[in-house]
Amino acid sequence: MALSDNKRNLYDDLPLNRQRREVRVLVLCEGRDDSPVECSMKTISLFDGAASFNALSYVWGDANDTTTIIVNQLLITVPKSLANCLQNLRHYTASHTKLLNQNPQTIWADAVCINQQDLLERSQQVQMMDDIYSSARNVVIWLGEGTEYTDYAFDLMNSTAFRERLKDLKISNRRPFEEEIMVDVIFKQVLCKRKWWQRLWVRQEFVLATKEPVFCCGCKIIAWSHLLSCFLSFPRSWNYPDIEHKWEDCRKKVTSSLDESDANIGIHPIALHRIRKSFCERRALPFCDVIHYLLRNSAATDPRDFIYGLLGLLDPQDRKQITLDYELAPMEIYQQVGYLLWKQHTERTLSELLPTLNFHGDDNGFPSWVPDFASQSIRGWQDHRTIQAGKPWRKQTRNPFKLDQSILVLQGIILDIVDNAIPTPNKFSNIEEIVPFLRDVEELILKAIDRPIPPHHPLKPFSGLKHEETVVQTLTKSTVDTGELFPGLEDEEVWARLMDRESLSPEIAIAIRGCRYNGLFARLSTMLKGKFLGRKVLTSEAGFVGIGASQIEVGDVITLVFGSTAPLILRPCAESYRMVGSAYVSGLMDPDLFNLYCEKLMLQEVSFNIS
């Protein structure tokens, strides 16, 4: 997109001195609701301790959804979301003054303060992102336009009396008031579905804040500590089954504001809090933590930003090994990151990251061990490490790279060969929609399990482990959360009824007649979405079954590499292998079993050359 003359003049008149760590900031002018947003722009140096500005954290939104604001008496095109934010921030209410402590407000907003068309300037400013957000007086998070319901929730959460009543709820044994239930619904079903929670860039911005971040929605504003306090104290509907209907009543009241997107997409508020707390203690995060906790379930417009949007949180030792240059292709950046992970962080990459990463089994011009961070699946808050064991098996003892840095060498054993791989749907809206597919999957799995293992097959000593789990356990079981799918009922009975194999028991019949059908299957739906969707159901030549990466194909090799927490699927390619991804294989997920059966196994250690 060509730069307009106005923007060109604006940036030409305000050049940045990189040596002085200069940035541009907006000074927001007061105005009426219906008047255009007007600002002046100036440059400041981050070396100047007296510099005072608020850094904005927001979602740009649709690139075509733009409007104009006035900057230095020039009409400048900006994302509509930014204009709406600035329009609301210029309301100098008592709460704004107390939290932001600025009048007039001086604001750093990347869409305007960086010349986005100048790739060199963009790269230089992104390299300063940690300084910008940690130097800001406040990090102001814009959740979007307000509604009567979000205004209601913010007003109550800002009330000391309301927060005290919520805290008292856990120890007083009283039932929650309707207003407490209503705010719970608004927070989780409206506010937590705003796009801000999904975007990758803003997570770094939140974590980098020196003072506690401030959240804005419409003209309302609240400190993060108050928001978090309420979230931790909200009543949970499952703790009050006799009044569970009140949550549904509140959902119906706010139905016009509800977002129909999956509530699990994005980052959980508690996870965000823990990550920020960890960063504040050390002023840097381990590379594997950043990839594992912040990259997960995220979205970014520019695929390079899946890495660049996290650089400000890394230890300098890791950061300096990644080239920040927007002229590089995304996979070139990913190769630098992949090499760093495999070379310098081998143990944690194998034990924690590998099962969550996405790879190209086919040749895309890059080594197959290079993760494609832009195509990571979004599985939601309830992805409880669903295809990982609780601990790794053994350890890698050698340098993972030969002299040729394009070949990754891992030690391990070959378990089996994939003989069937069925793709699962990427989404479903209700349990009835997915049931026909589940029935087909169950038939496939049961046939494979019943197939005898040939006498000389290496997994013959493991024959009994094929029957260790039921079908529903294979599709939903997690090493982190293995509780009942249907509290108070027999899981297998409910599953059998769902598969139309058994008649309805009186308990389930009562639950369904009592309009608890959706609630009854809510946990099953959640666990299926976390483990099953967007992957492939696989069976092996020996009749083992499981769920794994969506790239798995018939003929791929099921391996267990030392140091990993899940079987790794590799694809034979000439004299080497290509990395496909990880899989959960029922009966073969317990590392202790491999030690127990080690002497019985007809398996030999193999060096896998992965190109």
TrEMBL record:
<dbReference type="InterPro" id="IPR052895">
    <property type="entry name" value="HetReg/Transcr_Mod"/>
</dbReference>
<protein>
    <submittedName>
        <fullName>HET-domain-containing protein</fullName>
    </submittedName>
</protein>
<dbReference type="Pfam" id="PF26639">
    <property type="entry name" value="Het-6_barrel"/>
</dbReference>
<feature type="domain" description="Heterokaryon incompatibility">
    <location>
        <begin position="53"/>
        <end position="205"/>
    </location>
</feature>
<dbReference type="Pfam" id="PF06985">
    <property type="entry name" value="HET"/>
</dbReference>
<dbReference type="InterPro" id="IPR010730">
    <property type="entry name" value="HET"/>
</dbReference>
